[in-house]
Amino acid sequence: SDHALVYPASPAEYDWSTHYPAFAGSGKTPAFADIGCGFGGLLITLAPLFPDTLMLGLEIRVQVTQYVHDRIAALRATSAPQISPHPSSYQNVSVIRANAMKFLPNFFPKASLTSLFFLFPDPHFKARKHKARIISSTLLAEYAYILAPGGLVYTITDVQDLAQWMRAHLEAHPLFQFVEEEELRKEGKGPILDAVYGSTEEGKKVERNGGEKWLACFRRIEMHRQA
Ligand code: SAM
């Protein structure tokens, strides 16, 4: 249950400086959000690649969130410039415990995200549980709101039925357009795609078990109004 979760009343009220002290006063808010980040493998991989981009993981499980928090704190401590010269001091990555199905727009300002990740989300196999899926028409309206036009949604799963579900919902939404992996690689998104495929704990597990992975990416497009 959510009883212990606290949500900001609006994104303007959220104080990101506790998450990213090195960026305090920069006015920056997270641009990458990893929904259901699990043990944090994606963001830990991306953080050094985009040291000026703030990244946030959202995770509902208390212990898992704490684990990611401690993992980031340890990386920050051991990669501090005075200890080891390192391309990243992981100052740009953080995690919060949150139910991502609730109040996302209270954390993220409108059009503030450039990338939204849904990596190996829980499949909720039974039909009566489909409303618990993290991709739905209602939630897509929120994702479209917090994403900047041109921003990207990355989805990947080893569950074929869920892959079809996510793709069908995203393709049906007027603000999202499917983008081929090849096109994204041409745009320089290769390192992100590689991390999406292989950097997370769940993605590695699927690899160990020889499972298949279905990737689908979508661009948040501008609404073209008809005259
Ligand atoms: N993305 C990670 C990876 O690829 O390793 C984790 C995948 S795991 C199968 C799904 C994760 O989503 C779990 O850690 C779960 O606790 C989290 N989760 C499920 N529902 C959530 C929600 N409503 N809000 C935030 N996190 C959620």
Automatic annotation (TrEMBL):
Chief place where the protein resides: nucleus
Active site positions, chain numbering: 122
Gene Ontology terms: cellular component: nucleus; tRNA methyltransferase complex
Known pathway: tRNA modification; N(7)-methylguanine-tRNA biosynthesis
Lineage top rank: taxon: Eukaryota
Subcellular location per the Swiss-Prot or TrEMBL entry: Nucleus
Broad enzyme group: transferase
Function field: Catalyzes the formation of N(7)-methylguanine at position 46 (m7G46) in tRNA.
Family assignment from sequence similarity: Belongs to the class I-like SAM-binding methyltransferase superfamily. TrmB family.
Protein name as annotated: tRNA (guanine-N(7)-)-methyltransferase
Gene (name only): TRM8
